[in-house]
Amino acid sequence: MPVLPMPRAKRFKADRLEMYLENQIQGSTPAPIDDSLTSLDWLQNFSIFSSHPEGPSGPGCPSSQEKLFLRRLGTDFPSSPAAGDTAATGMLRYLGSPVISGSDSTVGPLLSWYPCIPMQPIPLVEVDYKTNLKVKPPYSQASLICMAMQASKQPKITLSTIYKWITENFCYYTHAEPSWKNSIRHILSHNKCFRKVPKQKEEPGKGGFWQIDPEYADMFVNGIFKPKIRIQKRNKGFQGVSPDPKPLLSKNNRSTTKSTKTPLLATKPDSMRRDILAAALDDVLWAEVTVDTVTVPPTFGFGLSEDITATCDHPPPTTLTVL
DNA sequence: TCCTGTTTATAAAGCC
DNA sequence: GGCTTTATAAACAGGA
C-alpha cells in the first residue's frame, strides 16, 4: 500500500490537478509542459544530492520550471518507504505514466497520483535513505514512529525498538545528534495518536510499550502520519469536510478542527466545482488521476461520487469519481 | 548511571 | 498577525 508524507508544498499538487482538469475541460489533449521533457538525457546527471541543486542545463535538460518541479518532488513529495524492512528508499517520479497504481506497495500515493496524468515517460531517481547519511528523511517523526510500529508487525513495540528501526532504516539518524530521540519521546508522549501500554511485571526491560491508538489509526496512511483532512476554504461559500472534531494533540501542541459542511457541488457553477475539487485534493494524501477518473482515499471528506462527477462532466466521457 | 517518560518552552514554516 | 504543525531543547522524575 502506498504512502506519502504530508507535503509542505501541497499547493503544487493542486496546481497540477488544475492543469490536468483544465486540459480535460478544454477538451484538448494534454500537452507536455516543456519539449525538454521528451529528452531524458539530462537525467543521467541528475541527482538530488548534486552539489548543483539547479541540476544540469542546456539542450535536453529540464527547464527551470521543471527543475523547480523536481526539487519539489525531492523535498516535498518523495515517496515513502514501505512500512517494512525494505523501507527507506524513496523514488522520485518525474512526469508520469499510468503504470503505477495506488495499490502498489512500494511506491507512494503521490506516485500513483501524479504519474497517471497523461504526459511523458518517467525516469526515476532513487533516494536510499537507508545508506545516505546526509539527507534527512522527509518524513515527520510521527510518521517514522508509525513506520517502525508497522514494520515490527507487533501490536506494540518499545521505545528502543523504535530507535533501532529508525536508525537501521534511515542512516541519517545514526549519525545525527541524539536529540532526535528526545523528539521521538516527546511525540510519543504528546501525540494522542500514540498510546502507552505498560509492561507487565513478568516482562523484562525498561519502559513500556507503545502502539497506535486505534481511535486514531486512520491518521496513518500506510505509515505516514496524516492529520485529519482539513479542507480549507478556497472559495467563498464552500467548506470542506473534517470527519473528526477531536483534537489530535494535547496540551501546548493542541490542534483544532473547524466545523465543516458537505458542499453541494451540484449547485455550484462549473468553475467553482473544479476549484472545489482541486482544493479538496490539495488536502488529500493521494489520488489517482487517469483520463477517466480521479480516485481519492475513502477517508476523503466527500462521500458522494455524484458530486465529484459533476465537477468535471466535460468533455465526455471524462468523469471524476470518488470512492 | 543510563534510559524512559513527562512537561514546558521555543522556533520555523506554512496557512488563513 | 495569529494559528497550526512540526521539530528541537531542556529540566525533571522514576525505574532498571
Automatic annotation (TrEMBL):
Disordered: region residues: 236-263
Cellular component GO terms, alphabetical: nucleus
PROSITE patterns per the UniProt record, alphabetical: FORK_HEAD_2, FORK_HEAD_3
Parts of the chain that traverse the membrane: none
Biased composition (Low complexity): 250-262
Subcellular localization, as worded in the UniProt entry: Nucleus
Pfam families recorded: Forkhead
Residue ranges annotated for the Fork-head domain, each copy included: 136-230
BP-aspect Gene Ontology terms: cilium assembly; heart jogging; heart looping
GO molecular-function terms, A-Z: DNA-binding transcription factor activity, RNA polymerase II-specific; RNA polymerase II cis-regulatory region sequence-specific DNA binding
DNA-binding residue intervals: 136-230
Keywords in alphabetical order: Cilium biogenesis/degradation, DNA-binding, Nucleus, Transcription, Transcription regulation
Stored InterPro entries: FH_FOXJ1 (IPR047512), Fork_head_dom (IPR001766), FOXJ1 (IPR047513), TF_fork_head_CS_2 (IPR030456), WH-like_DNA-bd_sf (IPR036388), WH_DNA-bd_sf (IPR036390)
Family: Belongs to the FOXJ1 family.
The protein, known as: Forkhead box protein J1.2-like
